[in-house]
Amino acid sequence: MDFFSNQLRINHMRRFTSVHDLVGTDQHGLQSALSDAVALKKDPWSMSTLGTRKTLGLLFMNPSLRTRMSTHKAASLLGMDTMILNAGSDSWTLETRDGVIMDGAATEHIKDAAAVMGEYCDILGLRTFAGLTDRNADYEERVLELFVRYAGVPFISLESATRHPLQSFADLITIETLKTVKRPRVVLTWAPHPKALPQAVANSFVEWMLAADVDLVVTHPQGYELAPSFMQGSAFADDSSAAVQGATLVYDQNAAFEGADFVYAKNWSNYNDYGAITSKDMGWTVNAGKMALTNNARFMHCLPVRRNMIVTDEVIDSPQSVILEQAANRVVSAQTVLMRMLQGLV
Ligand code: SN0
């Protein structure tokens, strides 16, 4: 079943939910977005009046450190005001299922919250993690789509069930600014974790890397295969003639690391046995021995990270680790997206 075909394109509200929303059909689109990002990184205050008298509203259904602070900061750099709500703690508990009888704990429907926030704000953002129980609901992005439909203003994803586009854009900016070869070998490796995590960061990283000028290799234990539409680069692609080369899957982590210029570690739970953890094999932890197989690769992780589970202290605290550059570039990616939205380009 193709979860991506019709469902999500019905809703044409201006939005940033995946790489396709930034790049459109223009094959130079990504390069031009990257140029904007590099210019803003160099001169962060260059557009400081673009967002004057505009308000950004951010609704968090799940915890956040980087997304909350970097998006707020990005808006400030553009002269925008920001209002942030944490659902369930400093606002009402929200119902996200459409059409249910609200006789339980949830006080307000997300449709009403979105519509009201849209009255107060010029751009709205939402964070909503995958539930990891109903794959259809997650991969159809039911919560995000409901919110977008009722928001009535341009929308920016702060991580949804299947993607984390602001993170992936920051990751791409990091790779572009640090690469020493034109087309680097980028390896996304699964690593062990005590809890079931969504596939969003991994899906999204694959999606952005396939749109960029890199060789992408994905490595994970058997059973951790990502959704075929992401691995093939066809998720969301409207035009099936736009053949994108997919990611290369290598089950042997050591073989995958050979010659790598960037190693990106991330845990995710099963897509096929949806939400299951079928391995916690510490043999997959990124350590110095594995990094020695690479082409002096930079180590990347989106954070938060479980140290000495995903990666050893030795590697994450080494000069090869670029986790802080990635986190810093979260401001740049958010600022670029907000700038383009204010300019009417997204
Ligand atoms: C989230 C995820 O999607 O994997 C957010 C990453 C930006 N990560 C977690 O929820 C980590 C939780 C944990 O227990 O380590």
Key features of this structure:
346 residues; alpha/beta; five-stranded parallel beta sheet; disordered N terminus; binds N-(3-carboxypropanoyl)-L-norvaline
Please outline what is shown here.
The chain contains 13 helices and twelve strands. The chain has a five-stranded parallel β-sheet, sandwiched between helices. A five-stranded parallel β-sheet has the order 10-9-8-11-12. The chain is an alpha/beta fold and 346 residues long.
Arithmetic mean of pLDDT = 93
The run of helices and strands is EHHEHEEEHEHHEHEHEHEHEHEHH
Distinct ligand kinds? N-(3-carboxypropanoyl)-L-norvaline
- Secondary structure tally, helices: 13
Which percent range fits the helix content? 25-40%
Q: Major β-sheet, in short? A: 5 strands, parallel
Query: How many individual β-strands?
Result: 12
Strand content: 5-15%
Order of strands across the widest beta sheet? 1-7-6-2-3
What class, by secondary structure content? alpha/beta
Q: What would you report as the Rg, rounded to the nearest angstrom?
A: 19 Å
Which stretches of 5+ consecutive residues score pLDDT under 50?
1-10, 237-242
Describe this structure in words.
The chain is an alpha/beta fold and 346 residues long. It has 13 helices and twelve strands. It has helices at 19-23, 29-42, 66-77, 110-120, 135-139, 142-151, 165-178, 200-211, 228-231, 253-257, 288-291, 313-316, 323-342, and strands spanning 15-16, 55-60, 81-86, 94-95, 108-109, 123-127, 155-157, 185-190, 215-219, 248-249, 262-266, 298-300. The strands form three sheets. Strands 1-7-6-2-3 form a five-stranded parallel β-sheet, with helices on both faces. Strands 10-9-8-11-12 form a five-stranded parallel β-sheet. Helix 3 links the parallel strand 2 and strand 3 (81-86). Helix 3 packs across helix 13 (323-342), helix 7 (165-178) crosses helix 8 and helix 7 packs across helix 13. The longest helix has 20 residues, at 323-342. The protein is globular and about 55 Å long. Residues 1-10 and 237-242 have low confidence and may be disordered. The protein binds N-(3-carboxypropanoyl)-L-norvaline.
